[in-house]
Amino acid sequence: MDITTQLQTIANAMWIPTIVLAIVMGVYFTIRTRLLQIRLFPQMLRELKGDGDVAPGGLTPFQALALTIGNRVGVGNIAGVATAIGWGGPGALFWMAVMAFCGGATAFVESTLAQIYKQRVGSELKGGVPYYLYKAFQKRWLGLIAAVIALILYTILAPGIQSNSIAVSFEYAFGIPGWITGIAVTAVLGFIIWGGRERIIKVVNVIVPIMAVGYIGGAIIVLIVNITALPGALGLIISSAFGTDQVFGGIVGAAISWGVRRALFSNVAGVGEGTYAAGAAEVSHPAKQGLVQTFSIYIDTLTVCMLTGLMMVVTGQYNVITEDGRELLVNLPGVEAGTNFTQAAVDTVATGFGSPFIAISVAMFAITTIVAFYFIADTNLSFIVGEGNRVYLRILECVILAVCFISCIVDAGAVWALGDMGYASLGVINFAALILLSRIALRTLKDFDRQRKLGLNPVFDPSSLGIRHADFWEDPAEGVVAARLGAEASGRGFDNDTTTDHHDEEDRRK
């Protein structure tokens, strides 16, 4: 057994508890939030515009959404979907969708916690898994464990998956050697991340909408051309998901496992990846950013992933081979599950266009994802060593760039296995935290719903909810900002001298 196979075996074993926790917690949070994915969907759209201007160092809800989509929408939406179908059959798409729906509630809980326990570090707002572990339990070592694992994941393990996928797709599409792609990717990333936080946000705000609209548009064209095959494809997905299809009926377990696993890899709901952007947003109530992060799951998995999978199924451009090597369906002889499935699907509509289109899409998805990974790694580094130490930050930047270059010239299987191991490790830690802290996020959601029913623009007061150690919100200066945002968003004036409490406003309305 070679090293790659050994790593893949370890990664598969590590994902078992993560998958179980993701399913159980997703269903539980969906019930406890009373199907917020549906009942609060209109509110998600309203929250995208934000509450007004933000202070320097904070992000608007849309900027946080763009940054989150940057890290959620990556090669997992193309290569990850292909591996789910390649090893779990078309039925894996159904379970991806189910996991995405339930994962929306999980994303709300973790992102709301990130908002509750965020803090201002220097001039910037920062939050995420380490911050709410430390503040909620008042044990810094808990936060340090999560921060170290996340730092390793987002500096060394995860970026390699993205850059390797760029190299593979560019070699397939243009015949460009991996080392040349590695140099180009490293140069582009260096330009972006060395421009600081402001350049990162600007780049993400520009690239993310372009890449999302462009890719979704291309996928829709493929589906329109194959519209007559769409009903049959949907039927195959459903029958395969429940084991009634003659060809794929025996791999229902693999369909569920790979569907959940790749959905979780793509949208990382529950792993904590979205909490870092969520904690950097400036809003008047934590639940607002929780809803925005729930919406990002719809864009990532229920839109981009589903369109990718449907392109493969309606065109028949995919293989299904079980983990023990049995070939259930081979439409593309000699082609491994990955971006090549999607490239072949697009080629059926525009010969010779599929490979360049997917290669460029992968490059844009992957670069924005790596940039978002840098943002996450920087936040974890700040938690570990404190703010202001530029030497550590320079080392972090050099390591990420080196990893991205090296990953363009090494075996893809090993890179994916290492990334899977990192995500599984962080996922178990974060799910454990969510089990213990979810009541705080649910209490915050109840407060949000209560204020909305009273006709108020919700403003957060942790002390009134019995939530302790939410230092940011208890700071009088920050409380004034939150109250101002709430007042501006509801169309009322705000007087900094009087600092009207939202409970006083509520009493007047009663």
Rg estimate, integer Å: 22 Å
Oligomeric state as shown? single chain
Low-pLDDT regions: 492-510
Total strand segments: 4
Mean pLDDT: 87
* Strand coverage percent: under 5%
Assign the structural class, choosing from mainly alpha, mainly beta, alpha/beta, alpha+beta, or little secondary structure. Answer: mainly alpha
Q: What share of the residues lie within helices?
A: over 70%
Distance between the termini: 71 Å
The topology string of helices and strands comes to HHHHHHEEHHHHHHHHEEHHHHHHH
Describe the strand arrangement of the main beta sheet, using strand numbers.
1-2
Q: Any idea what the shape is?
A: globular
Q: Mind summarizing the main beta sheet?
A: 2 strands, antiparallel
Structure annotation, total helices: 21
Written overview of the protein:
This protein is an all-alpha fold and 510 residues long. It is 72% helix and 3% strand. It has 21 helices and four strands. Strands 1-2 form a two-stranded antiparallel sheet. Helix 4 runs parallel beside helix 14. It starts with a helix and ends with a helix. The C terminus is likely disordered.
Task: Please outline what is shown here.
By secondary structure, the protein is mostly helical. The protein has helices at residues 3-32, 36-39, 41-47, 61-72, 79-88, 91-116, 129-137, 140-174, 178-193, 196-225, 230-241, 252-267, 275-279, 286-315, 339-347, 354-385, 390-407, 412-453, 471-474, 476-489, 502-509; strands at 119-121, 124-126, 319-321, 327-330. The longest helix has 42 residues, at 412-453.
